[in-house]
Structures are given as C-alpha cells and as structure tokens.
Amino acid sequence: MWTPEIFLEEINNRMDSHDPPIAYGQHTNAEITSQIMDSNELLESILSLQPAQSAGDGSMSLEEKTLALIQELIESIPVSIDLHVLKYKFRNDDNPLSVVLV
To answer: What's residue 54's pLDDT?
Structure first.
C-alpha cells in the first residue's frame, strides 16, 4: 500500500536537496553569481560584527592583527601550483565553482 511515509522516504533517499540552475531554466553562471552574492553578504556580515575601535589594552591593533593573519596565509600558500594535476583532479567535477577556479 502506498502511504505518505513511503513517498517521503523515497524523496529523501533518491532526490538531491540542491536543485541545479537548469531546473529553473537558468544558465550555470546563475549559480556562480548566486555563490558570489552569498559570499559577499557573508563577508559584509562578518565585517559588520567587528568593533569600530580596539579596547586600547596595549595589544596589537585591528590592522596589525589583520596584517599578521594575512602574512600567515601568504606563507601557507604553495609557491607553485601544477595546473595539469589540478585539472586532472577536477576533471569530472562540474561544480561551477571548481570550473571557474580551474
């Protein structure tokens, strides 16, 4: 007998929770644009939560902390990236973000 629970279970087990842009008649670039907008909104929210002034407790200023973090990130980035290895790694990944980054 077909019950709503059976349909719900099938939907949860067999259907993706993320609809591709093509489902709405949009181009794949629409997803990229959406991801960019979401990222910008997230970063703006994070920046809005930062205090306007530091407490003046003698520690590093906000700018000094930011520059120190940037320096750490720069040091952690590999000097060179082998594009052939990267392209091979993402050869079957059709995620718009991966396509753009490669």
So the answer is: 53
